Amino acid sequence: MGHETHRVPVLPSTATTAGIKASETRYSSSILIHNEHHQMKRKSSWFWFSTCLFSAVFVLLSTRAQQTLVPENQATRFERSDTAMGITDQVMFDNYSLILNGQRIIIHSGEFHTFRLPVPSLWPDILQKVKAAGLNAVSVYTHMGLINPAPDVVDFNDFRALQPLYDAAKAAGIWIVLRPGPVCPSHIGQPPYIQGIIDETVPNQITQGGPVIAIQIDNEYSQNPITNAEYFVDLEAVYRDPSSGIVVPLTYNDPGQGRNFINGTGAVDLYGLDSYPQGFDCSNPTVWHPVTTNYHQYHADVNPSQPWYFPEFQGGSFDAWGPTAPGYAPCRVLTGPDFQSVFNMQLWASNAKLINYYMFFGGTSWGGLPFPGVYTSYDYGASLMESRELTTKYDEIKRQGLFLRSSLEFYKTDWIADSSTGLAASTNPDAFVTFLRNPDTQAGFYIVRQTDSTSTANITFKLNVTTASTSLQIPLATSSIALSGRESKMIVTSYAFGQSSRLVYSTAQVFFSGTIDGRDILFLHGANTQAHEVALTLTGSLNPRDEPSQVVFTQNVAGLGPGETLVSFLDGVEGLVTVWDSDTQLVLFADSETAATFWAPTIALPDSAGDPLANYWSLGTNDTVLVGGPYLVRNASIQGTTLALRGDLKNDVTLTVIAPRNISSITWNGVSVSGDFAGTQDTNASLPTIIGGFVGQLQTSSGLTGISVPNLEGWRFMDSLPEVGSGGTMMFDDSSWVVADNTTTNSPSKPLYGDGRVLYGCDYGFCENIVLWRGHFMATGAEKSVNLSINGGEAFAASVWLNDVFLNTSFGNSTNNHNNVGETDEKFIFPEGALVVGRDNVITIVQDNMGHDESGSTPDTTKSPRGVRGFQLNSGNFTTWKVQGKVGRYFNYPDKVRGVLNEGGLFGERQDWHLPGFDTSNWTTRDLIEGLPDSKAGVGFFVTTFNLTVTQGSDVPMSFTFEEPLGQPYRALLFVNGWMMGKRVGNLGPQSKFIVHEGILDYNGVNTVAVALWSMTPGVPVTPNLQLSIDNVYDGGVGGIVTNNPPWSNVGRV
Questions:
Q1: Active-site amino acid positions
Q2: Which of 553, 517, 555, 519 is nearest to 539 (CA)?
Q3: Angle at Cα 817 formed by Cα 813 and Cα 822, nearest 5°?
């Protein structure tokens, strides 16, 4: 169930590959190679190139020589021993966790594919949001088909670049597990693609101050047969060659509990398991599968000497074509905050310490990226929407992420027992408990869920716990612990916070713990419909303030030690409550929704200039502040007595800050914020603390209210199918097209019928997007019909003409991945008068290629026979077949910026009509909503331009929406400033809304929109109603967005 399989273009007679699995988006531009590498050892280098696949690399490790910043009492320091493993002493691991520079690190990561956001200046936006959620890493696929489109061509320019990603990750303090995936066997030398990856990555490993801490060898592969294992040996040899310079661990992700590549031939440094427990059908988002219960036992059985690693854990779901497909909103419900609470914590309960969520930001499968099972949007129901906006899933990940970042004792835990192995912890059998314990400090972690993990019932129970000094049944004052339906809780005991404080237990959840300005900080949260309590020793001189209502302090409680106080939070608490505010401690409590409005940005140390790891939590800094209120806090810095905050606002908010006491001024995005500082008012009741507290107001810019977008009008139209134009198809000159005369193919799906010629697009360099076929024959008058078997993949379509007469359209199908039709076989009857006897006649086929299939358990299915699998006239034979796809195929495509997957073979695409600057002044004026003239079947281009003026210092997600009802028989390719940003299938759906980001759109300039409209049924009204809209307006943004939209040129066009 991993979710990327990278493909290499399949060029003439070279399409050998094998696949990975069946889950979601793949790359249609190329073909997968996954097995069969060593069965073809004597092939040419070109053959090997075309059969190489690429997947991706993921693991997290990094380190450097510097004194640890984490207090020793929090058990993060690691003394090297024989139990540690690693290629370099800067990146090691044992059975508990990763160890970077001698310091324990857990990996809490999100998947991010830069090629699905082809605007490099927006990558920092994603990484800053990853960091703000408390995560510390991203897992990144690279796309071999884009980077290495032809033999010996390696392109790391523009959005294919890695260096801007590495630089942005280092600036944000985010580790990278790189997943470049499969390559060619090493015995043929250094494959250019992998050598390029190595050259780009070596200086960006943690050992050289960079963010890369691991590389994944291949994606979801099997160790059997032995040729597969030998393939891994070859790949590992490329990376481990002494001249390569790669020293970070090599990893692997197993698509199921298959025990692959842990030991034996091809074994990797660090093994990991993928898991997608809810599957990929979002149609019934409240119907759950139960949690997987054997994660811990599987790890104990197969690789107990390594930390427990999940390179891909379900962070959402893909969605399929079809009118019954639910869209991504239900996917965000299926894998929503309750799923994250129960299923993510089930990973914690299995003692997993390396976790990556697939996806964290899904993005857009623009151009020819998708495989047939998905449409353009790759939103994935992820924590960040395709528009880069935050969701309630993001809130839950942040609550979990800041807990994990804060809880250093959790980095090293032993799995003690759970309710299935005799742990008698809960007084109610409906509550399932797992107990983990730090062996050095005895800090305890009780992870509690419902025994029936799918249950929506409300249950209560008491919990028998063991602290460092005693045994207790908790809670002691409130009546019980509650689980409200699908909810998990982390109950901590003997838990350290700050430099010198330790609580006895807490039934409230820990949001943040740490030290600010020498004070120990504990920030707890819980549902406001439940009661919670914490037992701890409160220290220091209490600063005077009114005792909060609904908070009860009890001392001298039976079971607690001398000086330990029980603090109870009654149900109904809303907002932030200051529980204890002394010169040594600050204890806060908030309802869980309020807690999610707080942020804990890291603060680089004052003397860190020039330190490449200055922004990395625990290796570079342990300094932070707490900031409440804004939609997003991107980062923070301190210069002297000024705290500078940067972030985004959606509305006017109250800004709450807890910072060092010497802070006397605060700026927000460079503008001074007025408000109340601690110690400056007669009363400090409004402040969260009188030491370093601040409350002020943030207001959105007045300039944001005037942002608007125009109606899309002033369309110009031109027919884009001269191949079947009026006046007879014989008028069209296809002499420059490729002659399709191959008689062999490496696809295992051989032609079904015909005369032996192979009409598969990939065999001629046309693997993706729309491909045109023209079959010539000399008519005698006996020809009455043609049989055609056309293969385009799930949800495809193909329209057929005889000369200039439309015959019919073959429709593929998909109904939410059921009743799939990826290949048709039909007879096309010639209407009276369509045939021209004694002359050359032409069958023209316009075929949409939906990408190659996934392999699943049948690897050869990736070698998809996209094209014409069968052709036969009822009488006579074809003389010549010609084929045309994107201009230049894989060697000479002219648009090097947008890359090899952006275009197809429509006449308008071949002529650059979709690019900015093409002169349409002599075209016909015609509104897009009018469709093609006379409601005919065919293809036409509609082009218009519009201006945008968007206020600087804002983030304004925009989208294009086809607003007409679903069901009209058309397809439309949406080009925005030359980028193919959407495929609309009017008869199937479900996608009608297409997100387009700034950087593709010029927010302060002229923009060009082109729609290639393919009407597939004559006489049926086709009325696309395309509108541009603003989805939201945010004050802030990452800033510095660069557009790179090369304009029209006629060079190299057909």
A1: 220, 312
A2: 519
A3: 40
